[in-house]
Design goal:
By secondary structure, this protein is mainly α. 68% of the residues lie in helices and 2% in strands. The chain binds benzoyl coenzyme A. The site of benzoyl coenzyme A has 29 residues, from helix 2, helix 6 and helix 9.
């Protein structure tokens, strides 16, 4: 009369419960539901999100450096004010994203320690130098343009705190893209021959690294399949890259610049642009720390963190004092 269920040990019971939780989770994902921080989720889903969101946050923070380099040298007060606001926005994006990742149980200190030790990644694009003022416009146009293409689908990411953060980030990125394009239009329409050449040179240097921002090709992307299955990513790396090329080529024509790819050609059959091969060796070199400025970028971040230690200590001491005062006042009132 003994049933199998009666002989189930604690480990089997936990496994059965896990299978049930997993089935419920999968059904929620399939139904297009959003997952909140306190909901049950598989460990791999949690880890994937912490990896992606923290890398995204690091990208925003490290991404302040190439453009920050030009704040003191912006050509007019108007351009300086816009650039200051943009770089400050990127800091804000980093902070929302660290907060979104913290809801998954990893502290900001842990995430920053991973960045500073070189363990965590950040976008490859920020390891290239900004050598002229036109680079600032081209970053707005191409880098923020690529970022928007990648990030709009993330507003529908199955993890709700990330999706919510992305809504605001995307609104601001859209302003960033437009200010970059407008700055380039001004240089191309009203600028001298030297200024137009400066824009073309910047486009030549940033085009291919911008295409690399979308990540490795789908058949070499180890994380894509599972992330798409879980609704973390909604569109694959190659699909997003293609959408970006299709949207950007007409903008380059209006601007009057040439994209540095002799194989770039409209394909009427596919209703998309064909483009030349991407140098994936360069991409992996940069991702693995050997890009033009990897060491400098990381060194700058680590120095900023160390130099800011006294500010964090002072803020904590102040918070402790305030809390103690509040506690004392409460006791006195009681
Ligand atoms: N650079 O399996 P895959 C901005 C890594 S900042 C470096 O396809 P996944 C802005 C990838 O992490 C916007 N690493 O991965 C700020 C993985 O390594 P791990 C930045 C890259 O995660 C200031 C490995 O390669 N945007 O807008 O499915 C000024 C295999 O790749 C890169 C985001 O962060 C890369 N480009 O897909 C201006 C968006 N690509 O982690 C503008 C959020 C790939 O296994 N992130 N890797 O060690 C994502 O959408 C996805 O993480 C990715 C990669 C599409 C980037």
């Amino acid at each position: 009369m003994y049933t199998q269920a009666m002989s189930v040990g604690p480990q089997d019971a936990a496994a059965a419960e896990n299978t049930e939780l997993m089935a419920t989770f999968d059904a929620r994902i399939d139904a297009g539901e959003f997952i909140e921080a306190k909901d049950w989720m598989p460990e791999h889903y949690r880890k994937t999100l912490v990896r992606q969101i923290s890398q995204h946050a690091h990208s925003e923070i490290v991404g302040m450096l190439p453009e920050g380099n030009w704040i003191t040298r912006a050509p007019t007060l108007k351009r300086k004010a816009i650039l200051l606001a943009k770089v400050q926005d990127e800091a804000g994006h980093g902070l929302y994203l660290y907060s979104a990742a913290e809801t998954l149980g990893t502290s900001r200190d842990q995430m920053l320690a991973a960045l500073h030790s070189g363990k965590a990644k950040y976008s490859s694009i920020f390891n290239y130098p900004t050598t002229s003022w036109a680079d600032v416009g081209v970053i707005g146009w191409l880098v923020d343009g690529a970022a928007i293409m990648n990030q709009v689908p993330l507003c529908r990411c199955s993890y709700a705190p990330y999706a919510r953060a992305m809504v605001r980030v995307c609104r601001e990125e859209s302003f960033h893209q437009r200010q970059g394009y407008e700055s380039l239009l001004t240089l191309m329409r009203e600028g001298t021959a030297a200024q137009k050449a400066m824009v073309q040179d910047a486009v030549d240097r940033w085009w291919w690294p911008s295409l690399m921002m979308f990540g490795p090709p789908d058949d070499a992307s180890p994380n894509s399949e599972q992330s798409i299955r879980w609704g973390i990513k909604r569109i694959t790396n190659d699909q997003l890259r293609q959408k970006f090329v299709d949207a950007t080529v007409p903008q380059a024509e209006i601007l009057g610049v040439t994209l540095p790819d002799p194989l770039l050609k409209w394909n009427a059959g596919r209703e998309s642009y064909d483009f030349g091969p991407i140098d994936w060796n360069e991409f992996w070199r940069v991702v693995n720390g050997e890009g033009p400025l990897n060491r400098e970028r990381l060194g700058t971040r680590v120095k900023a963190w160390n130099d800011g230690a006294w500010v964090r200590d002072a803020a904590l001491a102040h918070a402790r004092k305030q809390a103690a005062k509040k506690e004392a006042a409460k006791k006195e009132a009681a």
